[in-house]
Amino acid sequence: MTLLDGKSLSAKIEKDLAVEIQKISEKGITPGLAVILVGNDPASCAYVGMKAKACKRVGIYSVTHEMPSTITQDELLSVIDILNHNPNIDGILVQLPLPKHIDSEKILEAIDPKKDVDGFHPFNIGRLSANLDAFIPATPLGVMRLLKAYEIEVSGKDVAIVGMSNIVGKPLASLMLNAGATVSLCHILTRDVAAYTRNADIVCVGVGKVGLITADMVKQGAIVIDIGINRLDSGAIVGDVDFANVAPKTSYITPVPGGVGPMTIATLLQNTLKAAKNRSDSRKGI
Ligand code: GUN
């Protein structure tokens, strides 16, 4: 069993990014990311803080707009409009979830697709689904980069994904399909999840349920990607996989923490650089 070490891979990606960002900055384009945080959900605050720190490490200019949870939808839309027109901002990220009185879909659709570094705008979702160049959500793209770094072939494999969120499961299914895998996307109404995971060469799970994937649900030699993040009462962070019992059966497995999580941040930084490069190219009239 080999651990898929997202922590060291993301550190390497950040190092390479810092060099590239330095170069593009010398040409007068400093990548800029605007993060919008509504309310003070502790997990969201922690994620936004990690994203801002990571930007700083690689030389991306970042600004966090902290909004009260009482902000109206129209007020939030006007903040996005201003950022859409701000030439120093290449990427706009609205941290989810948003308060219930705000229509998240409407907010995500208001982001200029060229600045949609989260890849949540229907324009980018559609392009990903059609296997065209697009901004791809950071977590599933991080999973693909991790597999690639360990030279794990996806083409022709049977992949079971558990969890069909717009942020992780659905875009991951598109990426896996585009890479030539046969994909089963399991969700809350799936009658027998184990029937799919047991036959899969690669099992990916991200639903936020401790111990969901047990050893009997995974075949010998499978690759297991744990995208869950759960905080136990003890304060420990664990994924959705019963790691102690599942790991010995696998050929590769991601640890939590230190697997997919750090890759998500590194990929967001890459997406922001991609947006800045697009800005640079459009200035040249390409
Ligand atoms: N909330 C949980 N994951 C994410 C993410 O990847 N992007 C945003 N914007 N919000 C999230």
TrEMBL record:
InterPro entries: Aminoacid_DH-like_N_sf, NAD(P)-bd_dom_sf, THF_DH/CycHdrlase, THF_DH/CycHdrlase_cat_dom, THF_DH/CycHdrlase_CS, THF_DH/CycHdrlase_NAD-bd_dom
Entry keyword NADP: yes
Domain Tetrahydrofolate dehydrogenase/cyclohydrolase catalytic: 4-118
CDD domains in UniProt: NAD_bind_m-THF_DH_Cyclohyd (cd01080)
Spans through the membrane: none
Domain of life (superkingdom): Bacteria
Any single biological process term in GO: L-histidine biosynthetic process
EC numbers, comma separated: 1.5.1.5, 3.5.4.9
Swiss-Prot/TrEMBL keywords: Amino-acid biosynthesis, Histidine biosynthesis, Hydrolase, Methionine biosynthesis, Multifunctional enzyme, NADP, One-carbon metabolism, Oxidoreductase, Purine biosynthesis
Any Pfam family hit: THF_DHG_CYH_C
GO cellular component, one term: cytosol
MF-aspect GO terms: methenyltetrahydrofolate cyclohydrolase activity; methylenetetrahydrofolate dehydrogenase (NADP+) activity
Family classification: Belongs to the tetrahydrofolate dehydrogenase/cyclohydrolase family.
Subunit and partners: Homodimer.
HAMAP family: THF_DHG_CYH
Alphabetical list of NCBIfam families matching this protein: PRK10792.1 (NF008058), PRK14186.1 (NF010783), PRK14191.1 (NF010787)
Protein name (database record): Bifunctional protein FolD
Source organism of this protein record: uncultured Helicobacter sp
Gene this protein is translated from: folD
